[in-house]
Give the backbone structure.
Amino acid sequence: MPSNTVLDPHGAADAVPAEAVTPLIRGVAVLRALTEAGGTLSPSGLERATGLARSTVDRITSTLARMGYVRLDGRDAVLAPRLMELGNAYLSSLRLPALLGSHADALADELDESVSLAVGDRDGIRFIHQATRRRAMSLSFRIGDLLPAERTAPGPLFAAEWTREERESWRARRAADPEDRGFPAVPPREHRDSDGEFERRAAQAGRDGWALDDQLIEPGLVAVSVPVRDPRTDRIACVASVVSHTSRHTATDLHDTLLPRLRAAVAGMERELAGAAGAEPGPPPSGLATWTGASKQELGREFVESLARGLTVLTAFGQGRAELTLTQVATATGLARATARRALLTYEHLGLVAPGPHRAFVLTPRVLSLGFPPLSRTSLPRIAGPHLAELAARVEESAGLAVLAGEEVQYTARAGAGRVMSVDITVGTRLPARATSLGRVLLAGGPDVTDPVLTDVRTRGYALVDEEWEEGLRSVAVPVRDRAGAVVAAVNVALHAARRTVEECVRDVLPELTATAARIEADLRVAGRFTRVPLS
């Protein structure tokens, strides 16, 4: 492909503006390729997916690893939870998940069906909230997944508001991608319906104020949707959907039994939007320009500074910062105006940023295509795993993560030390909470602690058990807290008493353990901002 063109996700080639940042375009291509592959690709896989040279792929993944956005696992590049801060910037600036998510969750509980919120993304729809029922036959869509409008219930509602140019763009995409290969979240299209059929559905949805999906994506999947309108403009802010399976409801059932309850919930959502006060701006990022400069000094050619600086521009947006001018972006990131301008121009070309009112810029739903879907289903053990492995390598002892299960602790992640003799406790093992360092930390994190031993653990911030559970076994543990500050898990290092004294455990192991817990908490805060992170 010529160097002055780039493929958008639907396969159309657009000329790259002369002032665009080429390394930023390439970095975005790598992140999208990793996203579409489920979060993991080898360097050769990234070469094939992006068309970039191996040396370029290596420099980009090295830079992304330095930023904490990917992790290099052997020969593979793996998306890391911190990358979700880009999608979080869009979701927090949008405000809809924060304002309406609890309404969707309550409706899902009431109906015992999956409920989703979606926004329009050009000629597709993209999910911004999911309240999914856990069943053997359950919904697999994730926050950030992109679906073609014509194969969904929300699609006709959005299409009813399309301009002529948007309809023509939709037809062009359909002609260029008749099997929907540009939408990895859905199975390829087997039978193509006519453009006119969808246009009739859109016109009908516009008149009725609701729409159905009767097994358009795959056999068995049905959904009913109602638009949530922005009270300021009376245009669609998002679409709420109830999704089920034909084993539970037919499409007619959805209309007859669930549509009235969905409409009532949407009325509540619209009242929420109408009464919402302006969001207080959250803290903007700080020191990013200085950090990227220092990283370039340390890593040299392996750190692509223009890519790192370009990605920091997305984090300038967020709560209370939905619309930013060029000057505001430059101020928030510490970048020169010229650098910020080129990054914004590049993002506008890639469809990640759009012009807003008063010469401002806004993020688009496409920001969610940068890693959010696969990462939105992560769990605490998966978050903790790499950190535990690094800890075990540093202290040369076994490390573990556990959660409270009644009066016991249950190990949910482990990392071995590679010694001839080491602590060997497998994932899933349960032990009495009060007899272990992990359990004492977890119990001390409870709301009503009166036991003197647990009170002491809470005060000190760690628990150390010295050969109480098993002769020769010594362990030290610290808590892991969620975004609200609640203790949700604990991490420990366990070792043979002959290798370190109690004093050495406190002096040498505890600081490393505390730092590891802080890293896990940082990832958990990012991952859990708009998604539920399972603890086991």
Summary: Residues 66 and 295 are 8 Å apart (CA to CA). The radius of gyration is 25 Å. The chain has a mean pLDDT of 91.
